[in-house]
Amino acid sequence: MNKKYKMAWTKAQNPYKAIKNSPIEDELYEEDIPPQDDEFDEVLAEEIEHHKQKDGVGQVDALFTPLGIIVLDEYTDTYRLFNFWIAHTNFDLTKGVRKIIEDTPGVEILHVFTRYRFRIAVARYWKPSEVFVAIQKNVVKYLNQRERMLKIRKAAQNESTE
Q1: Do 24 and 67 have their domain in common?
Q2: 11 pairs with which residues across the strands?
């Protein structure tokens, strides 16, 4: 099996900020509002305007978690604290591959999402492109060695059964 192993990288986006800044946000406030009396419409219009204000007094971005409410600011927003990148692969992210990625200099965090997709945080004093090249080089080397070992084992098994 002579397979070309591939990795593609994309800059990870903060999903909370992406939803918050999407044009859908405005539509959520304006659609499917049943007709009511005029007084209700005025109150609803005020509520909509209040929620649309980006820099209103007392407005805070927060996440509700099982551990309580976490205020999103420059100290808690992980997408500001870390340089996240997502990789897409055409090979399985086995324990061996994950270990190689974790041990690559410049990788602070590794999150495996699926068998073909993972996210890393690149350390502040590392160039992402250098980290990507190191990961790809080490992973491809590992996968090629593993493939050769599997061929040798298979050949040895075939010889022993003959």
Answers
A1: yes
A2: 85
